[in-house]
């Protein structure tokens, strides 16, 4: 009789561990999917931003004659925003964001550009995309932190190790970018 009780208790403990392992694994898979979905929000905004760039470049080219360096850098960044590599896409987007003051300076140097309705609309679209990228980036980072905590904290780390779940990279803004973002007056765009 005692042996039977120990066998039943042992089977219950094994069943509980198996159910916990399945639950932990499914939770990690769900969180990984949340990361993919959150990245798609960033990716959609980067594609939207990349679609604005050619029109912005064309508008600037029509109104200015000697600013090809800025225009070429903006155009080159567009391809990076469409990259499948997350770090490359974010880096390209950040490059364009850093160039916004130069673009705004063009409108000061070329008054006809500053009054061009297409240019003003495109700059408003850029502002809107920048706001949405910032929101999507925050959401993405929240999903990544949740996932990383799940796979690195005991006992979840055991299941994560067994199924080779690796930590995801959080997209942090570099200190230089943070200072720029803190000082940028988006309303001036």
TrEMBL record:
Family as reported in the entry's similarity comment: Belongs to the LemA family.
PANTHER family assigned: PROTEIN LEMA (PTHR34478)
Keyword Membrane tagged: yes
Topology class, membrane: Single-pass membrane protein
Transmembrane helix in keyword set: yes
Principal location: membrane
GO CC entries: membrane
Entries under InterPro entries matching the protein: LemA-like_dom_sf (IPR023353), MamQ_LemA (IPR007156)
UniProt cross-references to Pfam families, sorted A to Z: LemA
Transmembrane segments: 6-26
Gene3D superfamilies: LemA-like domain
Name listed for the protein in its UniProt record: LemA protein
Annotated source species: Acetanaerobacterium elongatum
Sorted UniProt keywords: Membrane, Transmembrane, Transmembrane helix
Compartments where found: Membrane
């Amino acid at each position: 009789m005692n042996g039977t009780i120990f066998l039943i208790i042992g089977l219950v403990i094994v069943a509980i561990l198996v159910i916990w392992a399945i639950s932990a694994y499914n939770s990690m898979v769900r969180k990984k999917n949340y990361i993919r979905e959150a990245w798609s929000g960033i990716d959609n905004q980067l594609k939207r931003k990349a679609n604005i760039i050619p029109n912005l470049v064309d508008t600037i080219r029509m109104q200015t004659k000697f600013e090809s360096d800025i225009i070429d850098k903006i155009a080159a960044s567009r391809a990076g925003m469409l990259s499948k590599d997350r770090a490359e896409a974010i880096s390209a987007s950040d490059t364009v964001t850093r160039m916004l003051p130069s673009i705004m300076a063009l409108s000061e140097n070329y008054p006809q550009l500053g009054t061009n309705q297409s240019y003003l609309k495109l700059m408003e679209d850029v502002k809107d995309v920048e706001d949405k990228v910032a929101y999507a980036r925050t959401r993405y980072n929240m999903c990544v932190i949740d996932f990383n905590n799940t796979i690195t904290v005991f006992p979840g780390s055991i299941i994560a190790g067994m199924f080779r779940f690796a930590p995801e990279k959080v997209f942090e803004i570099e200190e230089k970018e943070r200072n720029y973002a803190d000082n940028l007056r988006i309303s001036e765009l």
